[in-house]
Amino acid sequence: MGRRWLAAIVVLVALTGCATTGSPGASPSQESIVVDSFPAVDADVKPPPDGATNALLDAGTTPALLTVTSWGSSGCVRVPQSVRWASPSTIEVTTAPNKNTECAANYEPISQVVELPDQHPVSEVTTVEIDGKQVQFTLEGEQ
């Protein structure tokens, strides 16, 4: 009987180990495209009004960067999953809930940076949409 208990414990430990391996928050079907994330106040990014979202297009880099700033808790804000040109003047960003389950107690503007595809000149952007909603944006730098 002692060997059966030992075998049962070994199986239980092995199954538990398999369940906890892998990257927290990573999913093969929903990867974040964020290249940097930080509290907006740490980088002097002008935050949107409470509860809103805004964007900053940086045409002075290659590839051009889009910084999306929205309100939330560190680790729990929605994260960009895809970015595409809907037209030569419109950038669309799709977000998804953050897979992180460890949310901070703070509520502040969080900035997330994504790289833009280089299909069109950033200087011609007139509309930035996040999850189908048009957001206010600022264009910086030259392309």
Notes on the structure:
The chain is mostly beta strands and 143 residues long. 13% of the residues lie in helices and 38% in strands. The chain is built from one helix and eight strands, in the order H-E-E-E-E-E-E-E-E. It has one helix at residues 2-20, and strands spanning 36-39, 53-58, 65-72, 79-87, 90-96, 108-115, 127-130, 133-140. An eight-stranded mixed β-sheet has the order 1-6-3-2-8-7-5-4, with no helix packed on it.
The averaged pLDDT comes out at 80
- What proportion of the residues form beta strands (DSSP E)? 35-45%
- Please compute the radius of gyration using only Cα atoms: 20 Å
Structural class: mainly beta
- Poorly predicted ranges (pLDDT <50, ≥5 residues)? 3-29
Estimated helix fraction: 10-25%
Number of strands: 8
Report strand order across the widest sheet.
Answer: 1-6-3-2-8-7-5-4
The shape is globular
Number of distinct helices? 1
Largest sheet: 8 strands, mixed
Order of helices and strands: HEEEEEEEE
N-to-C terminal Cα separation, in Å?
A: 74 Å
SSE layout:
Blueprint: H1 2-20, E1 36-39, E2 53-58, E3 65-72, E4 79-87, E5 90-96, E6 108-115, E7 127-130, E8 133-140
Parallel strand pairs: 2-8, 5-7
Antiparallel strand pairs: 1-6, 2-3, 3-6, 4-5, 7-8
